[in-house]
Amino acid sequence: MISLKLTETKKFMSQLLLSELFDHFLFIEGDIVTFNSFHIDGYIQKDFYAEFPPEELFSAASSFSGSEALPEYSYWKQVREYCFSLIKGKRTPLSFKFVFRLSPTNIAKLISKQNLDFQPNTVQGLYLNIQFNEQGLTCVTGTSLNTFTLDKSLEKAWDGMVQRFFTKNGVAFEVAI
User: Fold this and answer.
1) Residue 175: which H helix or E strand, with range?
2) Residue 21 CB neighbour total at 10 angstroms
3) 3-class DSSP state of 166
4) How far apart are CA 40 and CA 70, in angstroms?
5) Which of 72, 135, 140, 149 sits at a 20 to 30 Å CA gap from 60?
6) Residues 132, 126, 18, 10: what is their CA dihedral angle, to the nearest 10 degrees?
């Protein structure tokens, strides 16, 4: 786990809300506080879509193909515009928090690419917790496993991947101490 202070708030907000940069992440949940408090649960209510085949629902999601089962959570792409509609305006939100999770496909790619001694099914999730409040904008990484281990190689690989992803995409940050 690392905490990153995001140093260019306006640029990052544009990347988060107006670009596709985070669209391939699963959206776990979000809280936005403006004139009211809004909580968004990213868990997909599958019964709502019982009559529709999954490929019709998520054909626009870059990480989803019709041959896969309906994902457990929405992709950021599906809720980004709604979140933007709650945040945009002349006044800065009082706070917000978004929790993203790396997709299972990308978890498997990370494990393979880094030659880690983990099976993808033992990984509950690799998370990004993005938070804005009066102290500023931060991103905290998180790792959750289905089994107990003292091996921190996956956590270190995830922390490194996030820093490389941010650097590659022009997200300015400082590692918080």
Assistant:
1) strand 173-175
2) 18
3) helix
4) 19
5) 140
6) 30
- Predicted confidence at residue 154, as pLDDT, reads 94
Q: Is 145 helix (H, G, I), strand (E, B) or coil?
A: strand
Give every CB contact of residue 132 below 8 A, 6+ residues apart in sequence: 9, 93, 95, 96, 97, 138
Q: Which amino acid is at 102?
A: L
State pTM to two decimals.
Answer: 0.87
Nearest of 55, 38, 23, 20 to residue 94 by alpha carbon: 38
pLDDT at 82: 95
- β pairing state of 95-101 and 123-133: antiparallel
Going 15 to 18 to 22 to 27, the CA torsion angle's sign is positive
Contact present, 25 and 71 (Cβ < 8 Å): no
Q: What is the pLDDT of residues 83-138, one digit of tens each?
A: 999 999 889 999 999 999 999 999 999 999 999 989 999 999 999 999 999 999 99
Residues 76 and 100 sit within 8 Å (Cβ to Cβ): yes
Strand partners, 94: none
